[in-house]
Amino acid sequence: MRFLLISSRSEKWARLAQGLEKADAAELVWTASGHAARQSIQEQAFDLVLIDETLDDMQGLDLAQELIKTNPMLNCALASALSSQAFHEASEGLGLLAQLPLEPGEAEARDLIARITTILKLTQSTG
To answer: What integer pLDDT is reported at residue 22 of this predicted model?
Structure first.
């Protein structure tokens, strides 16, 4: 599996990255901005895109909306400090895979791996 992590604050994502490494389940590519993320997505395929709440050049939710509008089959998860209800309202209709805490850890890594594994199995069996 290939994950794209979009954040300029690598220290906030270090525990999640460690969880992915421990699971030996994913290759992790890092970018710091929405612009760099768009370029990476054009050049490579990713099974999951992880987006920080605030990026160097835009808000994470704005980038998620743009990416999903461009490719509705793209699996995205977004870090957000919003309550779950406010997050649901803000992201309604986007089909985001998950809301992540601002400093996701190993538990979130395991959950994301399980979710994306299930999605990939379903899409491979129907495709």
So the answer is: 85
